Amino acid sequence: MRVSRQNKILELIRTNEVETQEQLLMLLSNAGYKVTQATVSRDIRELQLIKGQAKDGKYKYISGNYDNRPISERFIRIFRESTLSYQHAQNLIIVKTLSGCSGAAGEAIDCLSLDHIVGSISGDNNLLIIVDHEENVPYVLAEMDKIMEHRD
């Protein structure tokens, strides 16, 4: 539930000008997530959200740019906790996730910057990973296996 909720938070701050935790709490409630302010605060901290200035000069929550930061255990944990199974067909890998979690799993894979992955497309509970060539699929699967076996 936490990964699904945090995925929803990322979606909400992308599609809304969320200025306060109270506003985020209300949006989550409207989306069917019954949580406390303390939970929202913890999610903001775990997601490493920051306040950035909107076009109108007000401050809103945004997801930070982590492209140049070292990969954290957070991405490995997100992928591991949200993934149910995966299999391949030719140069495609389909990942089955918990409902509402494929976006988070896709973001985790993207942030890990694994070699040979051209891109990914996520739905609600399915993530499609496109590998550059069929002969590189075993490498990507082996890296995914390492992530799934990784222990905190």
Account of the 3D structure:
With 152 residues, the chain is α+β, with helices and mostly antiparallel strands. It has 2 domains: 2-63, Winged helix-like DNA-binding domain superfamily/Winged helix DNA-binding domain (Arc Repressor Mutant, subunit A, Orthogonal Bundle), CATH 1.10.10.10; 73-149, 2-Layer Sandwich (Gyrase A, domain 2). It contains 6 helices and 6 strands; from the N terminus they run αααββαββαββα. The strands form 2 sheets. Strands 3-4-6-5 form a 4-stranded antiparallel sheet. The model is unreliable at 66-71 (pLDDT under 50).
Fraction of residues in β-strands: 15-25%
Counted up, domains total 2
Level-1 CATH class name of the largest domain: Alpha Beta
Question: Which word captures the global form?
Answer: elongated
CATH topology of the largest domain: Gyrase A, domain 2
Structural class: alpha+beta
Largest sheet: 4 strands, antiparallel
CATH hierarchy: architecture of the largest domain: 2-Layer Sandwich
Order of helices and strands: HHHEEHEEHEEH
Question: What is the helix tally?
Answer: 6
- Percent range of helical residues: 40-55%
What separation lies between the terminal Cα atoms? 19 Å
> Runs with pLDDT <50, length 5+?
66-71
